[in-house]
Each structure stands twice: as structure tokens, then as C-alpha cells.
Amino acid sequence: MSKPLRIALTKGRLEKDTIGLLEKSGFDCTAVREKGRKLILPIKDINAEVVLAKANDVITYVEHGVCDIGIVGKDTIMEMSGKFFEMVDLGFGRCRFALAVKKGTDFYAGYGVKTIATKYPNITRNYFESKGMDVDIVKIEGSVELAPLLELSNGIVDIVETGTTLKENGLEVIEDIAPISARLIVNTVSMKLRQKEIENLIKIIEENLQSC
Ligand code: PRP
Q1: Rounded Cα distance, 17 and 123, in Å
Q2: What distance in Å separates the CA atoms of residue 7 and residue 165, rounded to the nearest whole number?
Q3: Does 159 sit in the ligand 1 pocket, CB within 6 Å?
Q4: Rounded distance, CA 115 to CA 105, Å?
Q5: Dihedral of CA 110/114/117/118: which sign?
Q6: Rounded distance, CA 105 to CA 54, Å?
Q7: Ligand 1 pocket test: which of 120, 143, 167, 168 has the largest number of ligand atoms within 8 Å of its C-beta?
Q8: Is 161 in the pocket of ligand 1 (CB under 6 A)?
Q9: How far apart, in whole angstroms, are the C-alpha atoms of residue 78 and residue 178?
Q10: Rg of the chain in Å (alpha carbons)
């Protein structure tokens, strides 16, 4: 038997839906559900194994070809770019990138250069460049919503899912930037060398997405 197809799954928000989709597609993910501290986990009913990783690492592993397939959010894909095929929009993990400010603030008032806090500096830079606007970007690692409250920034570019975090902290969206959802990506060499296996797997997954 050839070596297992290696699938990198993003830990956290996308994890439950991804495992649910694999199970719905007929693959036994017991080992993934009962993972403990194990990092490489076999899937039954198919010659594949799962690696659970942080979103950025999913892209790195797929790009370097140590994982054949990855499941990762469009947010990470947009931020990191990289060389791989983006094959399927899985439809779950839906949220959006937005520009948000303290409620009632006129973001565009005045002539000074605005400061934006974000976990996504590349997306932020591209967005404001496309508007022809010069901004200072401050990279924050978590709870970006704090930055305008602490007066570190005039606004934030971040993921908005339910909008609860913004609301509870007195912030509001003033512009939508891009929709986000989970994507299935494939290493370019794997796509050539293991095309049949990968296409079969994608076909099964797509059939089960449609019946969601
Ligand atoms: C994301 C994002 C917001 C929050 C939005 O953070 O950065 O803080 O979710 O979700 P909501 O609109 O449903 O309130 P995440 O929970 O991923 O944690 P982090 O800040 O540690 O990255």
C-alpha cells in the first residue's frame, strides 16, 4: 500500500466541522476525536492520516509537501498566500474580514495617518493600498479589539463572526473587507503524483457537502 495521504487540519474553530465532514463522508475519525496528545492520527476506511496544526502551519506543511492536503480558513490563505491549489470552498467556518472602530467614531475625519491594529498585516496593507490610503499597521497577536479601547489604534481589521466581541466592547463594523470560509488546499506536486486518490477524496467530500 502507498504511504497514507496526509491531511493537515486546522485546530480550534474549524476542527469540529472538519471532523464532522470527514465522518459524514464515511471515514472513521475515532483516533482524531480521542487524540490525547498525539499529533499524527490515522483515519480508518481510507489510506490517510491527519495532522492537527495551527492555521499558519497548515499552509507551511502543504506548501512544503509534507502534507498533501490542508483544511484552512480563507483568512490564513489571504494573509500568507503561498504556492498550492485551493480546490474546494467547504462552506463552514463562515465569517468576514471587516474594518471596525469605536462606536460613533468618524474614522476618516482629520488628515493624520490612521493606525490600524490587526493580526493580519498583509490583508490590512492590501486593503488600504487598494483604497490609496496610507495607514500605520500595528501587529497584535490576540484580542485585537483591545487596541482602539486602549487608544493604540484608530481602528482594527479583524475577523467578525457573530459580532458579539465587537458589540460587547463598544465597537462597530464600518466596512466589510472580504468573506471567509474554510477551504481545502492541495500541494501542487501531490496533485500530480496522487491525482486520482486526491480527486476521489475531494469528490466524496463534495458530495457530502452538498447534502449538508
Ligand atoms: C476571533 C476574532 C474576534 C472574534 C470574533 O478571535 O479575532 O476576536 O473571534 O468573533 P465574534 O464576532 O463571534 O465575536 P478568536 O476567538 O479566534 O481568538 P483570538 O483573538 O485569540 O485570535
Answers
A1: 25
A2: 32
A3: yes
A4: 14
A5: positive
A6: 35
A7: 143
A8: yes
A9: 10
A10: 19
Q: In percent, how much of the chain has pLDDT > 90?
A: 88
Give the whole-angstrom CA distance, residue 197 versus residue 5.
Answer: 8
Cell of 17: 466541522
Ligand 1 closest atom vs CA 164: 14
Element (H, E) at 82: none
pLDDT computed for residue 32 by the predictor = 86
Residue 164 CB–ligand 1 contact under 6 Å: yes
Contacts with 11 (C-beta within 8 Å, 6 or more apart), sequence order: 52, 53, 54
Question: What is the residue-averaged pLDDT of the chain?
Answer: 95
In single-letter form, the type of residue at position 11 comes to K
The pLDDT of residue 211: 57
Residue 48 has a CB neighbour count (10 Å cut-off) of 18
Q: Mark 190-201 as b/e (b = at least 16 C-beta within 10 Å).
A: bbeebeebbeeb
Is the model's pLDDT at 212 over the cut of 70?
no
Cβ atoms of 29 and 19 within 8 Å: the answer is: yes
Least confident among 40-49, 77-86, 126-135: 40-49
User: Tell me: the pLDDT tens digits for 147-203?
Assistant: 999 999 999 999 999 999 999 999 999 999 999 999 999 999 999 999 999 999 999
Compute the C-alpha angle 189/32/10, nearest 5°. Answer: 55
